[in-house]
Design goal:
324 residues; alpha+beta; single chain; globular; four-stranded antiparallel β-sheet; six-stranded antiparallel β-sheet
Length: 324
């Protein structure tokens, strides 16, 4: 693999790396935009040039509404990283691992770049997404675009509060940002995304008590069920990862989305972590089961239609990328 022009200082130079806006407060709106990068030196050069300018583009759009909290996180897939940047590469970056278990299927779908655009208003997200697509032009091809919204008191469309146990402040940074485990990529992060579609007709036929057992929390008050009554297949039981007696957390910023006229209702899962292994173990528990067969019963009503793993380099990395 060829080594392309220097994109960041080496760790030994001691230059602090500034992270992208991963660990920030939740917003009311988001756009999740996944694209593929077209082959060719000219397209690679266009994308590399854009990366260095992304911060300025976000500032330009965000300045029009300073209270809109506009931000954008940019991540890269494994194959795209090799084509765009070469070596060195993030230690744990790889293609999303597909999971099959009976009728349950965590699919792996195309995607070279992820734009996670967040703001308090959808018009800001839309304006930035429009300018990103115009700036990249024919160098990329869109694969998937989802417009997410905060639903009442942070509930998903199945009626439960989503993200209650999210880490906050310094803890959020600690669980998402790489430190000395991969010195060449400090302040970077890994992110896994999946688009889930829900069968709300069947879900809403369930008694509330059964729904609460599947999720592991009360529906109205958002109180976690006691372990003495919570089934081992509950969603929050299977997604709790404990190592050496300590829970390993991730940062979620899931968003509901849908098209009421088309009967499409879904949740866009997005999880940030300093290692993809944590989320991969969660998905293994959900789809295969812990133990095998004791799977997440939410998957009887929700199916994943996309699946990607991206690496989010530091903002410093992006700013220092040089065109070919």
């Amino acid at each position: 693999m060829r080594t392309l022009p220097v994109t960041k200082p080496r760790a030994s130079e001691g230059s602090p790396q500034l992270p992208q806006p991963v660990a920030i407060p939740l917003t009311r709106a988001a756009i999740f935009l996944v694209v593929t990068a077209k082959p060719g030196a000219g397209n690679r050069g266009s994308i590399r040039s854009f990366c260095a300018d992304l911060g300025a583009l976000v500032r330009s759009v965000g300045f029009r509404e300073l209270e809109g909290s506009l931000s954008c996180v940019l991540g890269f897939g494994s194959e795209a990283w090799d084509r765009l940047f070469g070596h060195p590469r993030p230690a744990e970056l790889h293609k999303f691992h597909e999971i099959r278990a009976g009728e349950r299927h965590a699919v792996s779908t195309p995607g070279d770049m992820l734009f996670h655009i967040r703001a308090q208003r959808m018009d800001l997200c839309f304006e930035l997404a429009t300018r990103i697509m115009a700036r990249l032009g024919t160098a990329i091809s869109p694969v998937d675009e989802v417009h997410g919204f905060r639903f009442f008191d942070s509930r998903d469309l199945i009626g439960f509060v989503d993200g209650t146990e999210n880490p906050k402040a310094q803890e959020a940074m600690d669980v998402t940002l790489i430190a000395n485990e991969d010195p060449a990529f400090t302040a970077g992060s890994y992110v896994i995304v999946q688009k889930y579609l829900h069968n709300l007709t069947d879900w809403n036929r369930l008694p509330t008590e059964k729904q609460e057992q599947i999720v592991g929390r009360t529906k109205l008050t958002d109180v976690e069920l006691d372990d003495s009554v919570k089934p081992t297949y509950a969603h929050n039981a299977l997604t709790k990862i404990v190592e050496d007696g300590k829970e390993i957390k991730i940062l979620r910023d899931n968003m509901p989305f849908g098209h009421a006229g088309q009967g499409e209702f879904g949740t866009y899962f997005i999880g940030y972590s300093r290692s993809p292994r944590t989320i991969e173990q969660m998905l293994q528990n959900m789809f295969v089961g812990r133990p095998a067969g004791n799977y997440d019963r939410l998957l009887d009503f929700s199916r994943a239609v996309t699946g990607n793993l991206f690496f989010v380099p530091s903002a410093t990395f992006l700013e220092m990328i040089q065109p070919d």
